[in-house]
User: Which sequence fits this backbone?
């Protein structure tokens, strides 16, 4: 029997075209041995949630640099809940002020990584939490 | 409702999880597949293959749209390569298909090759069966970007589209064996680019030079221009869909459909034999440490691989102990 391969979705919801960060992360996850579904920019939360379910990912990584994270991130969690997919972990990153952290955690975002977070930290976080989960 | 019923009712979560369990080779997945198998075999399976960047995902997106207009439900399997170094993968085909993400009549699933060399993944055949059991009318299987020789798709699909683009070499390339032989329909993509006309002429000349028996199918060439000229692009997409339907009709009328299904069954049985016989034997030898001894004997030229393999076959086949 082989190990479960970790599958993650990297997505950018909303009208933000700054995808360098998301691309760097996608490649970093690839090099960590994850299967990364990369869907690029300009998606609705509905598209993100539908993709997460169709791809049976362990985790969704949302990136937002436009300031709309307060609306978009919780909406993704909500949609996953509606589809009974609460086992899918949602984390976020981007330009997110610290005062927004509590409301995002309350909304079900399980981790937030902002500029300066090391790639290793993020990979380790995912490994640990996905393993605990399944 | 158990999992099998859920999948037959079209439940995406159950289906996608089963596909994953098969990719990860979980033991219970095989059992589920056995239960589903009787409910497969009704879908029209289309393969789409070609070089990296030729436009396979974009054409897949266009075909999804065309089939949805005809109220067909569509399953898509999009295969991308696994890194030989990390075992990870970037599965990016969906980027071209985002507009269908929320359409409940469309189920798109990305697969990584996980070391398979034929342009698909080992789980691709099983994943097709899951989508068939879901009742998808059409299943589009997009291979990894391929070269000349990754042709596993022909064992899975009823009709294969080979996507070519201008600028990839002269007419000698079109004469070669391999990818040029497997097309049921050729798509000359990016046909607004220089060299497209030449490519079409070379293809047409190639096809006209092949001997034509009474029931032979001569692959049509559909040349498809710029995506950003929506009217022309839509027409070409419709034409492509029509050619696929023509091909399927031809397969049925000529009896080749049944031949292809026989070929597919043979391949599936061969694959299953490998999974049920070869893999357990290899695992057993490795786990017991015997493989190490065999390797040493062969390495030191005390014996040869065939003698060792015959001894192993004799022992396992006689005992019937394969579990």
Assistant:
């Amino acid at each position: 029997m082989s190990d479960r391969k970790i599958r993650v979705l990297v997505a950018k919801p909303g009208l933000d075209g700054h995808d360098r960060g998301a691309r760097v992360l996608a490649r970093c996850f690839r090099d960590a041995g994850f299967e990364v579904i990369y869907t690029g920019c300009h998606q609705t939360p509905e598209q993100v949630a539908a993709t997460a379910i169709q791809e049976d990912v362990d985790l969704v990584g949302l990136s937002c640099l436009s300031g709309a994270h307060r609306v978009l991130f919780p909406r993704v969690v909500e949609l996953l809940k509606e589809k009974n997919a609460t086992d899918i972990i949602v984390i976020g990153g981007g330009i997110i002020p610290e005062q927004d952290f509590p409301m995002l955690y309350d909304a079900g975002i399980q981790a937030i990584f902002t500029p300066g977070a090391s790639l290793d930290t993020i990979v380790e976080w995912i490994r640990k939490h996905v393993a605990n989960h399944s | 409702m158990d999992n099998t019923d859920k999948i037959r009712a079209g439940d995406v979560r159950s289906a996608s999880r089963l596909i994953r369990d098969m990719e990860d080779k979980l033991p219970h997945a095989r059992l589920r597949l056995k239960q589903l198998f009787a409910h497969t075999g009704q879908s029209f399976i289309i393969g789409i293959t070609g070089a990296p960047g030729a436009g396979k995902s974009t054409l897949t997106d266009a075909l999804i749209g065309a089939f949805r207009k005809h109220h067909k439900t569509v399953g898509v399997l999009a295969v991308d390569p696994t890194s030989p170094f990390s075992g990870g993968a970037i599965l990016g085909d969906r980027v071209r298909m985002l507009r269908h993400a929320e359409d409940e009549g469309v189920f798109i699933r990305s697969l990584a090759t996980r070391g398979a060399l034929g342009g698909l993944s080992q789980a691709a055949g099983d994943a097709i069966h899951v989508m068939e059991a879901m009742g998808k009318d059409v299943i589009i299987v997009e291979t990894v970007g391929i070269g000349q020789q990754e042709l596993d798709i022909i064992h899975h699909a009823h009709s294969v589209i080979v996507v070519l683009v201008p600028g990839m070499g002269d007419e000698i390339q079109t004469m070669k064996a391999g990818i040029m032989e497997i097309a049921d329909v050729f798509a000359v993509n990016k046909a607004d680019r220089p060299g497209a006309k030449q490519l079409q002429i070379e293809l047409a000349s190639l096809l006209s030079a092949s001997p034509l028996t009474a029931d032979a199918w001569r692959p049509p060439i559909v040349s498809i221009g710029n995506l950003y000229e929506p009217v022309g692009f839509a027409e070409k997409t419709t034409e492509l869909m029509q050619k696929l339907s023509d091909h399927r009709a031809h397969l049925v009328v000529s009896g080749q459909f049944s031949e292809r299904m026989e070929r597919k069954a043979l391949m599936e049985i061969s694959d299953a034999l490998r999974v049920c016989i070869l893999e357990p034997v290899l695992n057993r030898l490795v786990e017991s440490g015997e493989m190490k001894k065999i390797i040493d004997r062969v390495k030191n030229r005390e014996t040869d691989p065939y003698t060792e393999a015959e001894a192993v076959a004799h022992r396992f086949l006689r005992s019937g102990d394969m579990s």
